[in-house]
Each structure stands twice: as C-alpha cells, then as structure tokens.
Amino acid sequence: MATKVYIVYYSMYGHVEKLAQEIKKGAASVEGVEAKLWQVPETLNEEVLGKMSAAPKSDTPIITAAELAEADGYIFGFPTRFGMMSAQFKAFFDSTGGLWRTQSLSGKPAGIFYSTGSQGGGQETTALTAITQLVHHGMIFVPIGYTFGAGMFEMEKVKGGSPYGAGTYAGDGSRQPSELELEQAFHQGKYIATITKKLKGA
User: Fold this and answer.
1) Which of 63, 82, 103, 175 lies at a 20 to 30 A Cα distance from 200?
2) DSSP label at 21?
3) Whether this model's pTM surpasses 0.85
4) Please, what's the b/e burial string for 29-57 (b: 16 or more CB within 10 A of its CB; e: otherwise)?
C-alpha cells in the first residue's frame, strides 16, 4: 500500500501554492509515495477577497478534518500574519478537535513551509509558533535542518526558507518564488516523504 503524504496549504496570492506544487513533485519522486495537494477552506467572502486583490482560487480540492486523518504524513503551508500562520489555516486546525480527542494524528510526521512579505516578516517565527498545533495532536515535527546543503547558505541572492522548512518572500506581492526557493521546496517534499515512508514501514 502506498505511503500517503498530504500537502495542505492556504494561499491568498499564489506564493504558497507555488511552493506547494513543487513540494508535491518532490514527495511524489519517492518510490511508493502518493502525494496529494489540498487547500484549507477560505474564511473570507468574495467581496473582501476582491478588495484585497486576492488571486483566484485554484481547483485544488478543499480538505476536511476527517480527510486529514487518512494520510501518513503532512507538509503544511501558509502565509504569515504578524509572525504567525494565517487565520484561515488556524481556523482549519481549530476544526480538528475531533481528531485531537482520538489522537488520530499522533505519531505522524509533519513539516511546515511558508511565505512572508519581508526578511524580518516571520520566516522562523511563523514555523515556530505553528509547532504548537502539531504538539497538541502528538505529531512529529520534521524540520529540514541543513539537509538542503549549500543552498542554505546562499548570501548573494534573496532566499526564503530556514532549517524549519521551505519559504519564500512575497515582497509587495510582485516577487515570485525564486528557482532556489523552488529547489528547496522540492527537497523538503522529497525529504519528508522519505521519512514518512520509513516510519510507516517501521
């Protein structure tokens, strides 16, 4: 039976979604792994989203708490809001109380990726504060550490991400994930999928 890795994300302007797509490619490159993309539900109405110039939603399916429990491992992605995950993703985690009561996610590995507006905008705090959600579910946080190699030490170009996970800088919204950031996202997908497969096999 295939090892299921779910890449679950919220993306308002498309930056997190681009990372998610690359992470899926990385996870799917591991033999015996079935990687699937999911979005969390939107909490804002169309009028508000229009005023915020949000990008149109893709056709990626919207996940429910019950569907979340079907996977063997996870990679969660979201934009930052004041150094923490966006309210949309927090609302989704808030809906997983039933899974918490049964500890249905306990022992399952999970990684985190993110997008911020600037270098001081929460590249580490967004991931750090999100770990509390994993802890209460008994999940195993899997950071990428420095396994991405030389790419972790890039100093000549702007690069998001950290030992916590892949990341990007959106700036004013016009900047898109760089090639190096996408390579790091692919690496994260492959890395966490490999660990998930090992844990399931054990």
Assistant:
1) 63
2) H
3) yes
4) ebeebbbbbbbbebeeeeeeeeeeebeee
